[in-house]
Amino acid sequence: MTAATVDPGAITAPPIRSSAEDFKARMLRRAPLLPALIFTVIVTQLPFLYTLYISVIGWDRDHPEFGHKFVGLKNFRAVFSDHALREAVLVTVELTVLVVLVSLALGLVLALLLDRRFAGRGVVRTLLIAPFLIMPMAAALLWKHAFYNAQFGLINGVINGLRGWFGNHTPTSWSILTDHPLLAVAIPLIWQWTPFMMLILLAGLQSQPGDVLEAARVDGASAWQIFRTITLPHLRQYLELSVLLGSIYIIQAFDAIYTVTRGISNTTNLPFAIFETQTESGDYGVTSAEGVLVVFGTIVVATFALRVVSSLFKEEANS
Amino acid sequence: MSATTSDLRPTAARKRPAVSERRAVTRMTGGLGGTLLSALAWLMALVFFFPILWMLLLSFRSESDAASPRLLAAFTGVNYHGLFSGDVKIALLNSLNAAVTSTVLVILLAVPAAYALSIRPVKKWTDVLFFFLSTKMMPAVAALLPVYLITNNLGFNDNIWALIVMYMAANLPIAIWMLRSFLLEVPREIIEAAQVDGAGLLTILRKVIMPVIAPGLAATALICFIFSWNEFLFALRLTGQNAKTAPVFLAGSIAPEGLFLAHLCAVAFVVCLPVLIAGWVAQDKLVRGLSLGAVK
């Protein structure tokens, strides 16, 4: 047991490559990894195999008398001819792009503001990260009922108050829920994800080498020149990372849609659409076909996204 | 520029020059412009924090006061009465159970795995790392139906263990990535020196590795706890009356008719509080955790 761990060369040696190295040592090296790996394979891959199986059978929750017969690609044809589902893909893209871009921009502004010393900077930072720590379900409910509600929400309350000042005492009929439903879903998400973007970008700003900035300033570069030619290129990796990580979570947004609009007026994204097929229609075959397609779609997108992550790794892998 | 863009490398900590002089140059902008920028930072902080403040204010109002938006109204604690008994208490205990149990188990699985991917790397360790990350990119909703059917078949419907297993699967990749980045900071020379002195694996773990990664371990646990505590989709689908967690209870606490806003805000504030406090206390660790250890 200890013979392998006492070998001092093993610590700094690259991963074992020689076939001569004995089997036991390799297994010993692998052993600590196995519980986590086996657990992850079982819990994440087995359900997928099950989905694959259900996707080619007919399985209607509400009609158990039909049994589970093999139906070939019928479920997939149903998915491809489903206009609403294509719409859901579009909504997912729209919502993700909107939320990621707006929170990235706001996060950048906030990070730049916080990358200076001023009175109460710690307090400002503490206040700013709070939205990210709020339970997403609580955030969605808060925005929907305390802010958006047409009668007792704060937004219309303020609008009506302003109208009152100008002598107009009829309450406004405007409502973000009916007039801009996608925006109504996006606002709580932007509110929660801006602090996330800010934190990553702020860490990026603070890791700038001070001597380079100092030298640029001594050479008489303007603040804008320094930002454009030194800060922005330095931040690129951090921007990519925040977009990637933010997208992973926002593509999956469910709570906000479930709560704020329940998917009405073109706010159904993919997660909500699949949830609806499963719980409302009860057609498990079609639900599974949707799941399989989403997984394949994700593999395509993820391969692309992982390239971004692995570029952060390249140097290490080569060294 | 190549020197400055290398900071995201997971191994950077081992080779990077000292950071100490960088903080010192953070600009102290003076003059009118500086004051305006500081004021803007404060303003934006208040705007972002306002919804939480508003939630807290509404939670201390009577339902009728909460229904007409005014900045000031009479305070009442009525919405908090009985909030720590009955259904809220059960939901909070379920959430606590799901979040704490899954976090502990994730750490137990992730520490050895991260060790095998950093200090004594197995063959193809990059492939393994990316396999873990790729499971994180799958939309969870694609697994919802099979997981629902499997847990029902195994007799685990409305059982908190179904959630614990799902939260473990969801957080394990994050934990492994994070812990790996912390393990890379353990000075190799010390491990080698300990080995030369004849220390066994357990001694090295306890005396050399643990002290260095303890803060990282805490940060990892915090992130896992937050994600489990806040999760809604699986909790909604896999639990019923018994195993219902806080987000599900919260979603169900809006009355179909009548006024409920003040009560809702009180429940929301109570279920958000644990994460809010934990996150504020450990805010320095958040960035590193959320970026899977890539940003320090």
What would you say this structure looks like, in words?
Chain B: Keywords: Cell membrane, Membrane, Transmembrane, Transmembrane helix, Transport. Chain B: The chain crosses the membrane at residues 36-59, 98-117, 129-148, 160-179, 208-229, 260-282. Chain B: Belongs to the binding-protein-dependent transport system permease family. Chain B: It comes from Jatrophihabitans telluris. The complex is a heterodimer of chains A (319) and B (296). Chain A has 319 residues and is an all-alpha fold. Chain A has helices at 2-6, 8-12, 23-30, 34-54, 74-80, 83-114, 121-133, 136-148, 154-165, 176-179, 181-206, 210-218, 223-250, 255-260, 270-281, 284-318, and strands at residues 57-58, 69-70. Chain A is built from 16 helices and two strands. Chain A has a two-stranded antiparallel sheet with strand order 1-2. In chain A, helix 6 packs antiparallel against helix 13 (223-250) and helix 7 (121-133) packs across helix 11. Chain A is flat and about 75 Å long. Chain B has 296 residues and is mainly alpha-helical. In chain B, 68% of the residues lie in helices and 0% in strands. Chain B has helices at residues 12-15, 20-24, 31-59, 63-66, 86-116, 125-137, 144-153, 160-183, 188-196, 201-230, 233-238, 246-251, 261-281, 283-290. The radius of gyration of chain B is 24 Å and the shape is globular. Chains A and B meet through helix 1, helix 2, helix 3, helix 4 and helix 6 of A and helix 2, helix 3, helix 5, helix 6 and helix 7 of B.
Tell me about the largest β-sheet of chain B: none
End-to-end separation of chain B in angstroms reads: 19 Å
Major beta-sheet overview of chain A: 2 strands, antiparallel
Q: State the helical fraction of chain A.
A: over 70%
For the biggest β-sheet of chain A, the strand order reads 1-2
Choose one word for the global shape of chain A. flat
Q: What is the 3D form of chain B?
A: globular
Low-confidence stretches of chain B: 1-26
* Beta-strand content bin of chain B: under 5%
